[in-house]
Amino acid sequence: MFKHIMFPVDLHLPPEVRKAAEIAAQVARWQGARITIVSVTSNQPGDPAQTETAIKDHLSDLADELSQASGAQVDFRNIHSVDVAVEVDGDLARTAEEIGADLIVVGTHAPRITDFILSSHAGYLAKHASMSVFVVR
């Protein structure tokens, strides 16, 4: 049913991302699908987690973990953004199309008051992506 899962991540790995990673691994194992981890980052002075090397290392480690958990081929891609807050939703939806994903597994937080005004990233993907979106809370 699913052949290619896109798994968007926040590199600071909040609990929602960890839980979604477990689901992505289980679905990949069950479906025989491959996974592409996608992050959207910018260069923020003073943030050691945002250097090119740190980002690559972090994504590589996460890819290894997911590969071991799922037995699947796991690739990763980092998208550099000038303004992550503004561009992340469009970048993720566009990347899902570019890589040919047929499922997005994305973690989200419990609804907050601001989510009634501006949707969460997962909410945006669920509304705008052309492929199936599995939102994990």
Give the SSE map:
Layout lengths: L3 E6 L5 H17 L2 E8 L10 H19 L3 E7 L3 H16 L3 E5 L13 H8 L3 E5 L1
Parallel strand pairs: 1-2, 1-4, 2-3, 4-5
Helix pairs in contact: 1-2, 3-4
What's the SSE pattern? EHEHEHEHE
C-alpha geometry: globular
Low-confidence stretches: none
Number of strands: 5
So how many helices? 4
Based on secondary structure, the structural category is: alpha/beta
Q: Any idea what the radius of gyration is?
A: 14 Å
Distance between the terminal alpha carbons, to the nearest Å? 23 Å
Mean pLDDT: 89
Describe this structure as you would to a colleague.
There is one protein chain. The protein has about 140 residues and is an alpha/beta fold. Helix content is about 45%, strand content about 25%. It contains four helices and five strands, in the order E-H-E-H-E-H-E-H-E. The chain has a five-stranded parallel sheet with strand order 3-2-1-4-5, sandwiched between helices. Strand 1, helix 1 and strand 2 form a beta-alpha-beta unit. The longest helix is centred in the middle third of the chain and has 19 residues. The chain is globular and about 40 Å long. The model has no long low-confidence stretch (mean pLDDT about 90).
